[in-house]
Every structure is written in structure tokens, then in C-alpha cells.
Amino acid sequence: MNKNLSNQFLLTPSITFLNAGSFGACVKPVFEKYQQFQLELEQEPVQFITVKGLQYLKDSREALSKYIHSNADDIVYVTNPSYAINIIAKNLKLNEGDEILTTDIEYGACDRTWNYYCEKAGAKYVRQKIQFPLTTKEEFVEQFFKGLTTKTKAIFISYITSATALRLPVEEICAIAKQKGLITIVDGAHAPGQVSIDLQKLNVDFFTGACHKWMLTPKGSAFLFTKIEWQHMLDPLVVSWGYKAFSPSSSQFLDYHQTQGTRDFSAFLTIPTAIDFLQKNNWENVATECRAMVQNNANEMCNLLKAKSICPIDDSFLVQMYSTSIKTSQPEKLKALLYDKYKIEIPVMRQDDKVYLRYSIQAFNTQEDVDNLFSALKNIITTTNLIEV
User: Fold this and answer.
1) How far, in whole angstroms, is CA 117 from its chain's centroid?
2) Does 36 share its domain with 170?
3) pLDDT score recorded for residue 259
């Protein structure tokens, strides 16, 4: 990777960081902008929160809307995608017997959210089984819609999954769901910064994405896009001054979800700076290089762990992360060992009865980082009983 780009990150050099997928990593120019906003907030908090900050938020939403091809007033900022999914699930007006169709490889926090609200309504959260290894997008789409019934009200699916690190064919799935009259909800937590997003083409009802994972912003910056016809339905999780606002904007959606009491929303305001950084550094090329490194190391990872790849090693399902099933009865202990002894930050994640080891490749990573991981795994395999092969 480009050494000049590596120098733009604030990560501790002594740590082999292969986990940009969890919380991301901020670059120096964006972090500096973040601190400038925080300083301005402290210097004149009233003006910042009630006057200037509102314009800053508007400017930020407008920049983001161009980046993801949407209307600026159809976006509200949230701290993370889990928060956004809670807004949707709480307000979807589920009836007894309704079904939400999803996969069995979704993010655990979102599974818990949907289960909670489905149980309260007497609805059903249908986690359709996905069989591995996947071969084609068409096969995935066919597997997914086997879970469709006459009671299905909405589909919920990840753009890029967390534990299994798969770029799913959401375009095809949303198009079919629309033909069937279903509500479409996409968890795009990992998408911004990894892939190009065009919400106009996707024609999705609800979409949430994180800017702090792959778009290089500070933690706690994410967004919820909602089509205008659904916005009136979404009550805020926190009722505050935006409800029956003294000076209402043209959008109840913005009033309800943007003004939620005293909080530091500086992270949201850095998004234009992050987009500018991505564009100046030809981030599509950077992402392509990262994707190549992901794919170039996938077979060795599988061979080392005596595992079969869960998908083809090409662009059909892979972007900047790769997950391998790993046989271990103590994933938490293995993760701690990799960090404490080998100084490698990498997730070892449970997904139902399976465990996955996932490496992420971002602009700061090098082949040496992946080699460090392979060396550590070889040593753990030969000196401990934490990994079965």
C-alpha cells in the first residue's frame, strides 16, 4: 500500500491492525477537523448547538447525499447503524403474524433488535438459512427467497455482512422485493467507503450506513436514509425539542431525529472532509488494491485452517474483508491471545454454531500484516489446542 496513506492514520504502529471492519480508523485531516468542531462547541456552545451547528449539519448532509446519490432531506444522522435499525423496527407497525424475511448471517445486534420488536407484536423474524459454499449471486437470491411467504411484510438484508464478510446481491434482492410489494430495509453498515452507493438506483425504502468504518470519520457517525413516503411513520427514539419544533423545518423527519437534546454531533460534521480526502486520494483505486490483497491471501488462509472458502475468491462476493470458518471452542480466548501475545487486532466471531476469523484490509495494511497473522496462527496451531485442524 501507499506509505504516504499509511502515515495519515492514527493507529498505534506496534499493533497489526486487521480489523478496520469493526470500528474503522480515522485519518489525521478528518480527526483534526473533528477537534476543530469540538473546540468551537466548547468556545460558544449555545451558538454551536442552536445556530451554527444546524447549518453545519445541513452542509454535511448535502455532501453525503451527493456521495450516496440521495436527497439531503431524506438523511438523518445517527450514532451507529444499530440505532437506525431500532428506529425502523420500533415504528414498522408490525401486526400479529407478520414476517420479516432476513438471512441467518446478519449482524447480531440487528437480529436482537428485530427479535425484540417482533416478539412484542406477535410477528416473526425469519432467518432464512444460507448454505455454504456460495457459488453465484443467482444461487444466493434463490436461497433467500425460499423464506418468502404470504405473511412476509418486509425484507431486511446486509449490503456486506459482518461475521462472514460477504457482499450480498442487494440490488437484485431489492428489485424482486419491490416487484412483490415488500418493504425493503438494507443494513449498509460496511458499504460507504468500500463500494459505490447509489440509493436512487437501489430504490430501497430504508438504508443505514456507517461513516466511521470505511469512510474514515470519527466514531459515532452514521446515517439513516428513508424514502419520503415512510418518513412520517418514524417517531424518534428520543422525543425532544424537535417534536412540534418552535421553528419547524420543511421536514418533520429532520426535526424529530436531528434535534435530540444536548449532544456533541461533531463527528457528523466531519463527513464532507472525509469525502474530500477520499476523492483527493483516488479511493476507488485504493479500494481496488485492498480488494486484491484480500483475495490474494484468501486461499492461504483456508489452507492454513483446513477450511473451505464460503464463496468464490473473486469480486462476486468479496470486497475488503475475508472470513474463514475456524474450528475453536474458545473464540474469545483465541482473540485475546492473538492480541495479547502477537499484537494482532482481529475479530474471532460467533455466528450461531459457527466461528469465523475475519481479516480486513484498509489503506494502511501491507502484506507484512497478513504474513504476521499467518505466522501467529501457525504458531498457535502447533503450540496450543485453541485451533483444531
Assistant:
1) 21
2) yes
3) 82
